[in-house]
Amino acid sequence: MSTSVSKVVPFGSGGRIVQSACRSLSLAAAGLAALEARFEDRDFASTFLRVIGVIMQVRGRVIVTGIGKSGIVARKMTATLTSTGTPAIFLHPADAGHGDLGMITPDDVVLMLSHSGESTELGPIIQYCKRFGIPLAAMTAQPQSTVAQAADYGLLMPEIEEACPNALAPTTSTTVQMAFGDALAIALMEMRGFSADDFHKFHPNGRLGAQLVKVAELMATGDEMPMVREDASLLDATIEMTRARLGGTAVVDRNGRLIGAFTDGDLRRTVTGKQNLTEAVGRFMTKMPLAVAPDELASEALRLMHERNIMLLFVCEQGALVGALHMHDLLHAGVA
């Protein structure tokens, strides 16, 4: 089925097309500025803080709901809240009256998005919240609307101009809703002290998960870790390097503390100098090599390797050698 329009603008007017795009971005920026300015209003800021307090105190979840474009924003907001430490679930208003109202418990708080505040599909959810005393927070741009009047916590969005030339398609308004959702999620995240470790628990897969992997999860340990004493011979060090296949070996003292490193490059330079392979490796090692802690981010370890132009990094805890990390292991794990 083809889509018809009432008016076709010729492609020849490229300048007008670019101008239209820039106008949309300008209106979006103005909408965000207006939203930021809302926090200067004492009542709005106070309501925002009360909503934060309610969400922090509830034993259940944040039930996020909305219809149409607001519903799409509500889904994104739900995902952001959940991934940053605030349990949340999306409730579709069309399904609410067909059994899904049962997902709302007395331990929850409902966050409702409606630009107009008059979407009839939201009625059953409002009635349910009132009947069972469920806290209802609402984001709307109309203070006299049904949603605004029913809400326990009314978050009045700023008056904005939609980018749509007909002022019909939600554009600037959804940008503002999305930004407010992010602001809410980040405020809650910081209130909870949500750390990079927590983020990794919630994002174990993909590129983000790889960036949050710790050195301890990728390093070689035990028999896989190349290690010799400083009085070991060059031949012994070479055998150890060959066994572990990491391109080098750690050199430790009698207490297992890292004091040096001996790499393939050091071996080539030693052989070129016609040294006797029975000599102690301690004479030819690189003293005080670069090391990282096991709880360091693997991405930071990779950055150090690139910065120092090295392929092998040793891992120490209070000076004691506990592991070895090769660049290939980092790249294989997707760390970048």
From TrEMBL:
InterPro entries: CBS_dom, CBS_dom_sf, GutQ/KpsF_isomerases, KdsD/KpsF-type, SIS_dom, SIS_dom_sf, SIS_Kpsf. Keywords: CBS domain, Isomerase, Metal-binding, Repeat, Zinc. It comes from the Bacteria. Pfam families: CBS (PF00571), SIS (PF01380). Residues 51-194 form the SIS domain. The record marks 69, 121, 162, 203 as: Catalytically relevant. Residues 219-279, 285-336 form the CBS domain. The keyword Repeat applies. One of its GO terms (molecular function) is metal ion binding. One of its GO terms (biological process) is carbohydrate metabolic process. SMART domains: CBS. Gene3D superfamilies: CBS-domain, Glucose-6-phosphate isomerase like protein, domain 1. Zn(2+) binds at residue 92. SUPFAM superfamilies: SIS domain (SSF53697). Belongs to the SIS family. GutQ/KpsF subfamily. This is KpsF/GutQ family sugar-phosphate isomerase. It comes from Sphingobium amiense.
